[in-house]
Amino acid sequence: MLTFRLHLTCMIDIQEQFKGKTKISIGRLEHDNDIVVNQTLVSRNHCTIEKLADGNFRLTDHSKNGTLVNGINIHNINVNLNGTEKIIVGYEVFYILKPTLKDTAIRVENLEKTFRNKKIGLRPLSFKINEGEFVAIMGPTGCGKSTLLKCINGNMKANVGIVEILGINLYENFNFIKHLIGYVPQDDIVNKELSVINSLTFAAKLRLPKDSSKKTIEKRIEEVLESVNLNDAKIKKTKIAQLSGGQRKRLSIAVELLSNPKLLFLDELN
């Protein structure tokens, strides 16, 4: 029985942006930046990366929330780089120089979970998942599938062990990491009294930047509906309670896709 899938989106190589330039900018404003990241955590002019005469680089952060460089939050200062660092702006992961090997997106080491009633939820386990991989975990009811899922996406904390997401400790940095994660639990996460389009519009206003235009919101809704095969005029107007179980599950996925998460966890996807 398939219990959940986890999809890791690819990292972005920005070396091409330096052709003919010595400095590039990353931010939310479309006309002011070389790379546009239209997400809630990203400032209008978030950071710049400058190519130095010696072949190295310098990143300068101008943002409200900071820029993660190899798991360290760089905030309103500059830092020298050699180009191999992992740079996270909002929900997007960048490399100046393309890595020769696939990056480890999730690393789990000696993870254990025991509940208050002394019942064992997870026996010690360790594993790695590389970026770009699509993973399914199968097993009988009660074997700990959902417990594992929750422990590696931050919805539940393990008693022992380490979980790293993109090289960042999940439990120590959950307030940041949670914005990189999409999670569709077993139960529906949508209000069945709303129509499909109203549900997504409401969710988009909560998940997209506050200054997102009506056109931007509508475009993003169209994109996610298309990705889950629900982009039909009749379906958009349908009350969620009248959808089939499969359609409701796909709508729940669409809600999570609105913010373009780096990792998408799906529990009990039948």
Give the tally of β-strands.
18
CATH H level of the largest domain: which superfamily? P-loop containing nucleotide triphosphate hydrolases
Name of the CATH class of the largest domain: Alpha Beta
* Low-confidence region ranges: 1-5
Beta content? 25-35%
Biggest sheet details = 5 strands, mixed
Order of helices and strands: EEEEEEEEEEEEEEHEEHEHHHHE
Q: CA-to-CA gap between the ends?
A: 8 Å
Broad shape: flat
Structural class label: alpha+beta
Strand order of the largest sheet: 2-11-10-7-8
Oligomer: single chain
Keywords for this structure?
270 residues; alpha+beta; Tumour Suppressor Smad4; 5-stranded mixed β-sheet; 6 helices; flat
Describe this structure as you would to a colleague.
Mean pLDDT is 86; it is low at 1-5. 21% of the residues lie in helices and 32% in strands. With 270 residues, it is of the alpha+beta class. α3 (196-207) packs across α4 and α4 (214-227) crosses α6 (245-257). The strands form four sheets. Strands 2-11-10-7-8 form a five-stranded mixed beta sheet, with no helix packed on it. β15 (160-165) and β16 form a beta hairpin. It contains six helices and 18 strands. It folds into three domains: 2-8 and 103-180, Rossmann fold, CATH 3.40.50; 12-95, Tumour Suppressor Smad4 (Sandwich), CATH 2.60.200.20; 196-267, no CATH class. The termini are close together.
